[in-house]
Each structure stands twice: as structure tokens, then as C-alpha cells.
TrEMBL record:
The gene is guaA. It catalyses: XMP + L-glutamine + ATP + H2O = GMP + L-glutamate + AMP + diphosphate + 2 H(+). Gene3D superfamilies: 3.30.300.10, 3.40.50.880, HUPs. Residues 192-384 form the GMPS ATP-PPase domain. Catalyzes the synthesis of GMP from XMP. This is GMP synthase [glutamine-hydrolyzing]. It comes from Parablautia intestinalis. Keywords: ATP-binding, Glutamine amidotransferase, GMP biosynthesis, Ligase, Nucleotide-binding, Purine biosynthesis.
């Protein structure tokens, strides 16, 4: 185990993730964690993170000096570097100019932290304060033209510190440095795997829940599925999963979720499927404005969920499939609202529960997928592409109706089938069919038609904040278009959206 002590930096979970990539288990804790607790956890190493403060500011986060006497190796990063210097008697100064971005750093190759690292290596810097004089007993092991001490160490006490950020991708050999710390300094074996996470989490959940009752809103998406299965494995029938079918899911999706989680499925849990399609269609009838539609779907979802929860009565725990990027995003929240991104499955107000369990809070999406595979969740669920909470409600431009849902479901199913057949499904970030609100004139079998146009979208993206149009071969698009107009009643035209994000968004509404 490596403990990451959080001093308020932006990249704290990224550090933890990098350590886990070395197959070493890692947890992030606040810098205020008590020494006694640290000792009890017997970590093989501790990492101090960066942080926004200056060590001299009165309210700046500092830990107790005794941490250096525990005999546990420590690596300080950025602010963590300055805290170590400050606490051990070095001096930290504010530089006239900040050092920010990719910087060439010259490292001392004799330092174990830099073994196998190039003598001159590109690192990511982001600091204004710098260490002017390192504490007694420390040696400077790296510098840049403007930063005299870019790294220092006290080999005997196994204390190391770097001014730059080895955890970010821009530090080209950062992973090597972190693995040197983890393997060579802390002597970790690197035998932790996702199965250990699964095993530990299940046993922690069991301890926490005891004989309590647990309620989970299952959407069929990766995160809530993995969270539900972890709970099911831990506490079995003490868990009740409520799956609200709002009638805006992809074709057959409701049945697929039921097949996996329901009574004939793979897990021994209480599964309640609420078929609320008609209710949602009724509330959405005639509503055209996208944000209003999102709001209605979100509110109605919560209402349905609450009604089910009331039937179940008081529970002890409510499960949320929150993953780490959700934690960061909700922390920022300063940017303009483009779309309200109302996540169906958001926290209901009136469910009677005592505590929330978020078993995936520390994981990134790909880690959640690995955990899902470990838990034996079928691949088609684990690798499901992102699907918005409001579902097809925001892929039908304008008012929603049962007929339009049927059209977009059928068209989308054909599109997905052909994309998979062409072997393209794994390389695309997101791809789907949407129903435009446009009807146009066509001719089919010598008859005039006046039907809807379906739009196809395919994008590649790594973070869903920006996206590029993916190039789908014309032959594939041709097959999809012809199948859609032939097989889906009510459609006589198929369009391909070749706009990136920005200026468009990924979804249509
Ligand atoms: P946009 O359309 O904003 O989509 O470019 C970016 C990503 O977010 C998903 N998305 C949503 N997810 N509730 C969700 O849970 C929403 O209201 C919502 N709107 C968009 C979208 O599918 C894409 O992955």
C-alpha cells in the first residue's frame, strides 16, 4: 500500500492511478490524516501531492514533522516538495516569474529516483514558489535553468522530492520516476491486481453494511452495473436494485438489463423493473425545448424511484455509481451551462436512507471496466458506449412520442449492427442515430412519401469535451442508409452529421 496525502492539488487521483498502474495498491487521504492511522495502515510509502498554496501562507496545509520519523519512504511532489523543505528547515521563496509547462530538467543519474531516466528530460512544471535552499542532509538531484533545486533527496532517510509533476503525461519519463520510487525505494512487489480491489472492496462493503438494507438505482450503464454487482457479491439479497425503464432506452436495452440482473440473471439480488414508459411519454408530450425535456425526464425519474423506495421502506444505504471524473467535475462547476447534463439516477430527495455507498469513487472509467470484467459482467455491458441519462429523449429533436422513439431505436439498432459488422465499434468514441424533426419528400415504389430524416453521428474523442467527426467508409454508410429506409417505417432520408465539437455538441440536444 502507498498512501497519497492530499494537499489540495489537481492531480491527486492521477498520482494514485499511476501507482495502481505499477500494480501497487494506493489510496488518497487528506493531509490531516492522523499519524497513528497512517502507522496502523502500514504503508510502504507515502506521497505528498501538490497544492495551490504557498507554505508560508498562514492557512496553508501542513502535516506534522513527526511523519518524517516513521521510517516510511516519502516522495513530495510540487507543493509536497516545498512542505518537506519548509518543515525540515530549508527555505522556500517566491520566484519573480512562475515556471509553467514543459521544461527541460537536468537530473542526477546517480539518484535512484532517476535511474534509467535520460540526463536531460522533459518535465511538467507548474509553480511560483521554489526551494532556494534544501534542508540539511539533503542533496539536490535535479535543476533547470531557472530552478536551482528541481529535485532533492535524503537517501539515508529515504525522503525524496520533485518540483515538477511526474504523474502527468507531459512529464515524458514520469512513470519511470514513480515506478523507481514505488519499486526501488519502497520495495513494493507490484502484485496488486484489479481482483485485489474487487476482493478488498467486497469485504469492506460487507463490514460496513452488516445486516443493513441497501438500495441501488440501476441504469444498465457501466458504472451503476459495476457498483450493483459489487454490492450484490458483498451482501446478496440485502440489496434491492430498482431499474426504471423510462422508455427512452436503446432497442431491447431494458430486456438486456433484466436478463443480466433480473431473476433469471447472473446475480442473486432483488431486482425491480419499473416499466414507466407511458408515464414519461405522457409528461413529454408536446414538449420541444431541450432543457425542459431534460428536466422533466430527470424529475420524473426521481419521482418513480422515490415511489418504489417508499414501497421498500427505510433502508440503511443508498448506492451511487459515482466515479472519479464525476468527483472532479462536480468540484469545478464554474463553466457556463451548455446543457444541464441532468444525470438520471441523480440523488433523490425523499428516499429514507442513512448513508451513501460509492464503491467506485476512486476509479477512472477504464479501471471501472476492468473491475467489471473481473466481476464477470458481460462484455457488452462493460464496453457499452456512453449513453446519456435522458436517453433517446435528447436524440429526438423536438417533441417525443412513442412512434418517434420506435423509429430512432430501430434506426440506431441497424447503425450499431453494421458498425460492429465492419469492425469499427471499438475505435469510435460514440456513434448513434438521432431523429431530426425534419420531414421531406421522397419517392418509394412509385409513391410519394413525406417522412422523417434520420441523422447518423460518429465521433472520436478522448474526453467528450471536444470531439472530431469519425470517418466512416462510404460503403458502410451506404448499407446503413439503405437498410434504414427499407426497414424502418416512417423514414425516407438518412443524413450524416460531419460537425465536430465545438461548434456542435456530441448529442443533438
Ligand atoms: P455533449 O452532447 O454535451 O455530450 O457534447 C458529451 C457527453 O455527455 C453525454 N451527455 C449526457 N450524459 N446526461 C448524461 O448523463 C445528459 O443530460 C447528457 N447530455 C450529454 C453525451 O452522451 C456525451 O457522451
Amino acid at each position: 500500500l502507498i498512501i497519497v496525502l492530499d494537499f489540495g492539488g489537481q492531480y491527486n487521483q492521477l498520482i494514485a492511478r499511476r501507482v495502481r498502474e505499477c500494480n501497487v495498491y494506493c489510496e488518497v487521504h487528506p493531509y490531516t490524516m492522523e499519524l497513528q492511522k497512517i502507522k496502523e495502515m502500514k504503508p510502504k510509502g507515502i506521497i505528498f501531492t501538490g497544492g495551490p498554496n504557498s507554505v508560508y501562507a498562514e492557512e496553508s496545509p501542513r502535516c506534522s514533522k513527526e511523519i518524517f520519523e516513521l521510517g516510511i519512504p516519502i516522495l513530495g511532489i510540487c507543493y509536497g516538495f516545498q512542505v518537506i523543505s519548509y518543515l525540515l528547515g530549508g527555505s522556500v521563496k517566491t520566484a519573480p516569474v512562475s515556471e509553467y509547462g514543459k521544461t527541460e530538467v537536468e537530473v542526477d543519474k546517480n539518484s535512484v529516483l532517476f535511474s534509467d531516466v535520460s540526463h536531460k528530460t522533459i518535465c511538467w512544471m507548474s509553480h511560483t514558489d521554489y526551494v532556494e535552499k534544501v534542508p540539511a542532509g539533503f542533496q539536490i538531484t535535479a535543476h533547470t535553468p531557472v530552478c536551482p533545486a528541481a529535485a532533492m533527496e535524503n537517501e539515508e532517510k529515504r525522503l525524496y522530492a520533485v518540483q515538477f509533476h511526474p504523474e502527468v503525461m507531459h512529464t515524458q519519463e514520469g512513470m519511470k520516476m514513480l515506478s523507481n520510487f514505488v519499486y526501488k525505494v519502497c520495495c513494493c512487489k507490484g502484485d496488486w491486481r484489479m481482483d485485489s480491489f474487487v476482493e478488498t472492496t467486497i469485504s469492506q462493503i460487507r463490514d460496513k453494511v452488516g445486516t443493513g438494507k441497501v438500495l441501488c438505482a440501476l441504469s444498465g450503464g457501466v458504472d451503476s452495473s459495476v457498483a450493483a454487482v459489487l454490492l450484490a457479491k458483498a451482501v446478496g439479497r440485502q440489496l434491492t436494485c430498482v431499474f426504471v425503464d423510462h422508455g427512452l432506452l436503446r432497442k431491447n436495452e431494458g430486456d438486456e438489463v433484466e436478463a443480466v440482473f433480473g431473476p433469471q440473471g447472473l446475480y442473486n439480488l432483488n431486482f425491480i423493473r419499473v416499466n414507466a414508459q407511458e408515464r414519461f411519454y405522457a409528461r413529454l408530450a408536446g414538449v420541444e425545448e431541450p432543457e425542459r425535456k431534460r428536466k422533466i425526464i430527470g424529475e420524473e425519474f426521481i419521482r418513480v424511484f422515490e415511489e418504489e423506495a417508499k414501497k421498500i421502506g427505510a433502508v440503511d444505504f443508498l448506492v451511487q455509481g459515482t466515479i472519479y471524473p464525476d468527483v472532479i467535475e462536480s468540484g469545478l462547476g464554474k463553466s457556463a451551462v451548455i446543457k444541464s447534463h441532468h444525470n438520471v439516477g441523480g440523488l433523490p430527495d425523499y428516499v429514507d436512507f442513512k448513508e451513501i455507498i460509492e464503491p467506485l469513487r476512486l476509479l477512472f472509467k477504464d479501471e471501472v471496466r476492468r473491475a467489471g470484467l473481473e466481476l464477470g459482467i458481460p462484455e457488452h455491458l462493460v464496453y457499452r458506449q456512453p449513453f446519456p441519462g435522458p436517453g433517446l429523449g435528447i436524440r429526438i429533436i423536438g417533441a417525443v412520442s412513442a412512434q418517434k422513439v420506435r423509429i430512432v431505436q430501430d434506426a440506431d439498432a441497424i447503425y450499431r449492427e453494421e458498425i460492429a459488422k465492419a469492425g469499427l465499434d471499438k475505435e469510435l468514441g460514440q456513434y448513434f442515430a438521432a431523429l431530426t424533426n425534419m420531414r421531406s419528400v421522397g419517392v418509394m415504389g412509385d409513391e410519394r412519401t413525406y417522412d422523417y430524416a434520420v441523422a447518423l453521428r460518429a465521433v472520436s474523442t478522448s474526453d467528450f469535451m471536444t470531439a472530431e467527426t469519425a470517418q466512416i467508409p462510404w460503403e458502410v454508410l451506404g448499407v446503413v442508409a439503405s437498410r434504414i429506409v427499407n426497414e424502418v417505417k416512417g423514414v425516407n432520408r438518412v443524413l450524416f452529421d460531419c460537425t465536430g465539437k465545438p461548434p456542435a455538441t456530441i448529442e443533438f440536444e
